[in-house]
Amino acid sequence: MLDELRELYQEVILDHGKKPRNFRRPDSPTNEAAGRNPLCGDQLVIYLNLTEDGTIEDAAFVGKGCAISMASASMMTEIVKGRTVAEAKKLFENFHNMCTDDDAEGFADDDDEDIERLQVLSGVRQFPVRVKCATLPWHTLAAAIDGVEEISTEADS
Ligand code: ZN
Fold this sequence. Notes:
alpha+beta, Sufe protein. Chain: A, four-stranded mixed beta sheet, 44% helix, binds zinc ion
């Protein structure tokens, strides 16, 4: 990656980390889950409003943690809004691969600009400890969808 690009990516992460989008607790979420990453101290709660046909009408979060975890949660809540639960889980799968597999092609087959923005975070794969920061919001999202109240990144590793 060019140095210029790397800097740009960091800027995006810092911006989301400092001013997280959808950082709020909705009035009456249909689903919610708490996630913890003890390695780094990241903690967050994901709130969802799911429609009966499985569309994510609203996604929000509250919590505290490092810039990577906050930026990831911020971007995730923006991106999954309006998508179906199945689409969100597919995104999680792709995102996870992108963060852990050097050979992953990311979302090359997807023209969606929103999703391409997630590539910004794939730089964490150079820093294994940071992978859990980036994927924590997604693990927690999956837990909220599945009706699991609490998860820890240490439980599934
Ligand atoms: Zn972290």
